[in-house]
Amino acid sequence: MATILAIETSCDETAVSIVKNRQVLSSIVSSQIELHKTYGGVVPELASRQHLEIINPCISQAMLAANLEWKNIDAIAATCTPGLVGALLVGMAAAKTLAMLYHKPFLGVHHLEGHIYASYLAQPKLEPPFLCLLVSGGHTSSIHVKDYGEYKLLGSTRDDAAGEAFDKVARLLDLGYPGGPIIDRLAQQGNAKAFKLPEGKISLPEGGYHPYDYSFSGMKTAVLRLVEKLAVAGEIPVADVAASFQDTVAKVLTKRSVKCALDHDLDTITIGGGVAANSGLRKHLQQAAEKHNLKVYFPPLKFCTDNAAMIGCAAAQHFNLGHTSSLNLEVRSRMAISQVMQLYQP
Ligand code: KG4
Ligand code: ZN
User: Fold this and answer.
1) Residue 219 pairs with which residues in a beta bridge?
2) 336-339, long-range: CB within 8 Å, 24+ apart, which pairs?
3) Residue 138 C-alpha to ligand 2 middle, in angstroms?
4) Which of 41, 55, 91, 163 has the smallest set of CB atoms within 10 Å of its CB?
5) What does each of the 346 residues of the chain score in pLDDT, given as a tens digit?
6) 298 Cβ below 6 A of ligand 1
7) Which of ligand 1's atoms lies nearest the C-alpha of 139?
8) In this structure, are residues 121 and 301 in contact, taking their beta carbons and an 8 Å threshold?
């Protein structure tokens, strides 16, 4: 049973958690949404400075909430990739310092592997293989979880991430930031069939369409044109636009994920990232799963959006398998999920 102190600072949440295998002993998340709201998106330099200011209080709070002493911690972990380099550096420097100070092993963790582990946290009996649909502000990926530490990317977005599309559509409707939850709320009062939007299919050179890849920028542009047209005609039915957009995104994500799972003989789909909170996506996936006899797991929202518990859970699994990282491990803005084992020493 590994007890891990984990740090997550890849974007705009400063998070520290203590996890014992799949059990969360404490989870502190300090969101920077208020700081970035005025700019309509994350400002990298401001994010790093804010992480630097509050990382130490977050570490103390996590230790206090778990009621543990340093001698009870087996290893220290931090997200090392992908993310904003300046932001990642703060968490990594803090984790390496703690590892050196208290003579603990250190583990770097891939942020997307962390999002996959949100499902393990919520479902203690979950075992690979399964398909994980990861939908956040920065990523839209269908990942085949073959085994612990063994991943294959089967589908991804060619342009905007799903959450990014929600944020951009909210901005053009003048609804505020982050757009996902606002659109989700408005969509409940709108007619999802009011407007037809393109599904963002990716053409293949040999003909036909890519079965598992996504494109959201065309959908966003179609909403822009629609809003321009409606504005000329008179008042914009915002709730109907929000509902139609949400329904199109949810249907596309569901259709391609279900096909991906069935084509790869996988009977379980898990979901992670901020957009996993979306009520339309949850409804469509649940219905499709029932129809095709698939199991589908939705982690609670607190583990869908960025947090350090998911990072600690991934680190605990690696630590139990004998994996640790070098203190020379560096942060990387990008890294394929299939390469996670490169983060650990042989
Ligand atoms: O996973 P996350 O917290 O951060 C990243 O790693 O990106 O995801 C944030 C994204 C934002 O784009 C936000 O608009 C979206 O998740 N989001 C939602 C909902 N809640 C958050 N999108 C649709 N419906 C929601 N209910
Ligand atoms: Zn994330």
Assistant:
1) none
2) 336/153, 337/110, 337/112, 337/113, 337/141, 337/143, 337/151, 337/153, 338/151, 338/152, 338/153
3) 7
4) 41
5) 899 999 999 988 899 999 999 999 999 998 877 777 777 777 788 888 889 999 999 999 999 999 999 999 999 999 999 999 999 999 999 999 999 999 999 999 999 999 999 999 989 899 999 999 999 988 999 999 999 999 999 999 999 999 999 999 999 999 988 899 999 999 999 999 999 999 999 888 888 899 999 999 999 999 999 999 999 988 899 999 999 999 999 999 999 999 999 999 999 999 999 999 999 999 999 999 999 999 999 998 899 999 999 999 999 999 999 999 999 999 999 999 999 999 998 7
6) no
7) 7
8) no
Token pair of 197, please?
A: 């939007």
Question: From the CB of 128, is ligand 1 less than 6 Å away?
Answer: no
**Quick one: DSSP state of residue 220?**
H
Q: Which helix (H) or strand (E) holds 113?
A: helix 111-122
Question: Which two three-digit tokens encode residue 281?
Answer: 């996506």
- Residue ranges and CATH numbers for the domains of the chain are 3-116+304-343 (3.30.420.40), 128-301 (3.30.420.40)
Asked if residue 41 has its Cβ within 6 Å of ligand 1, the reply is no
Question: Distance from the CA of 274 to the center of ligand 1, in angstroms?
Answer: 3
